[in-house]
């Protein structure tokens, strides 16, 4: 009996437990419907290995990849199964869902709204093929801690942005939205989420600046790199306040400004990538002292010296540092100029041009130098400069002229600028400088027109308008060609006519009409510069020619050089060479006139040199590009365009740009007639660099002709004819300085000069005129 009772008890208990399983193991019908809809939408549901006739995902036994809490589904984990198809739009009815792992599949179509999933803590939807995200997706996700939507091309045509509803997800610690077509600015509320430590927003279409709210953020890992399109921009000062940062990726954007000095306060930082932005200025020493695991500063606009870094892995290629190696300091002049750049907020057009450690070599925009390779002129008119003038420019003690006209500069002029002993001109016109203005020496001309705050404090009237032409620095040849002494730089006052008198020369600027107030005086300077260069280049030729042949008749001719557009008759420089019988050989008179009409402004200049008259006409369309090409032709002996040459060298300017930086290639390209050697190669390099500067791709990067004269003038003494035959033939001592040599030439017997024709010239180098000796070569012409 006892044994029978025990058997009955066991059967009863077994039945009881079975019945309890039926009651408590049955899956919630609503959850069952969602999970079946999930299965039906898949193209390859067999990968789930769910029973075909099953109706109880929660079990027992539970279905693979499904986890339940009681009769409610709480987790679905199908990571990397390769499932393909859409999710059911009723997915958010799994209201007890807390952990969802759908990453690494081929789910596609519209992502269903997760609105109302208040218990969801972990949602991994990354690395799928969803194409749309609904606007209410984030509503009610009050418990979410990790949300990953990476690598889904949501709303491809329009992009999408994070809704304000997300700011209610105060428990969110990890938000990963890499390459999911997120667009527009980063919302401010992301910086206020109290638990957020990981923010990954790389490879999207984000724009704008890093929100100020990030300064109080607890974020440790920040990825904002490689934004498509415009990219993110602005300064990054805010990150220096994010003291918990360990990894920062900002590469591949348009961030600007300087690297913040306080970045050294980020004591937990291990990796910083700023590659491929527009950061300017010097590398902060606080950054160099950080013991980072990885630091990348490449492809920016950083200047100054390269510091010695303590980072384990550091790269800094493709910047504008003054020295090639860490620890080397910049030259004092460069340091002063970089201080100036800092105070005018590093304009990109100057940063890109002011590189290296030698301001007098290479295209340092707006600078000219004297024969001692010292900066003598700063000409930055109309460069859209902002900020203030640094006291450091007073360290450039060879400055003759400083031109800041037509910018947006403000503040006061440092007192130290007034202490520059060589300064002759300071043009401040058209800015917003403030008083007090330092007291300058009487020899310094200070122009302050167009500064409202200085107007009330102006003790004497300003003497010149904004458009005053540049004045030649001491690097330029003196105006007085018959005297060895250098004259003071001329002054131009407009609109009234002004004469500049020297012992043997005069320049008269006269208004062409009653509209002369609009006369662009820069044309005058450009024309004068062209004439001076032409005279310097033609002197050896004329000396030899005048002594070699007596002309029997007066045969005028002309050369026409087309700088840019051969089809446009206004776009040219016309040089007319003719004979006359009056005038002194070296009495140089330049008469300038201009007219403003529908055909543009034109300037005409006349030089009389004994029987030789040279008339030059220049229009406002002309720049120095053609002159650069002429220099290339002179150096190489090639013409600008020759279809018979190889495709690589067919266009001289394009080919010359590729080879001019290589000493070996440049030496090979030089015309053998020049007989270049190591002694003269330095001079050739200077001319080659000038030729490249004159033919820069952007017109505003090209110098004016005044700069060309400044560069070439010091070379005249080196390249004077020294051939004994020429000296004995002409009777002139070529060891004399150029002005004295010209004076002797002036006193020599005049000869008639005629050019029969130059129409058969294949380039800018004219053919040898009839009557020249066979020994006369292109070297003599140069």
TrEMBL record:
- Is Nucleotidyltransferase found in the keyword set? no
Q: Name one Pfam family in it.
A: LRRNT_2
Q: What organism, scientifically named, is this protein from? A: Ziziphus jujuba var. spinosa
Q: Name the UniProt key words of this record, in alphabetical order.
A: Glycoprotein, Leucine-rich repeat, Membrane, Receptor, Repeat, Signal, Transmembrane, Transmembrane helix
Task: List all Polar residues biased stretches.
Answer: 470-484
Q: Which domain of life is it from?
A: Eukaryota
Q: Which residues cross the membrane?
A: 522-546
Main location class:
membrane
Low complexity bias spans: 485-506
PANTHER family referenced in this protein's UniProt entry, alphabetically: OS04G0685900 PROTEIN, OSJNBA0070M12.3 PROTEIN
| Record's GO cellular component terms | membrane
Signal peptide location: 1-25
| Cellular location(s) | Membrane
Q: Which residues form the Leucine-rich repeat-containing N-terminal plant-type domain?
A: 29-69, 332-370
Q: Does the keyword Signal apply?
A: yes
The record describes its membrane topology as: Single-pass membrane protein
The name this protein goes by in its record: Leucine-rich repeat-containing N-terminal plant-type domain-containing protein
InterPro entries in alphabetical order = Auxin_Ser/Thr_Kinase (IPR052422), Kinase-like_dom_sf (IPR011009), Leu-rich_rpt (IPR001611), Leu-rich_rpt_typical-subtyp (IPR003591), LRR_dom_sf (IPR032675), LRR_N_plant-typ (IPR013210)
Region of interest (Disordered), ranges: 458-513
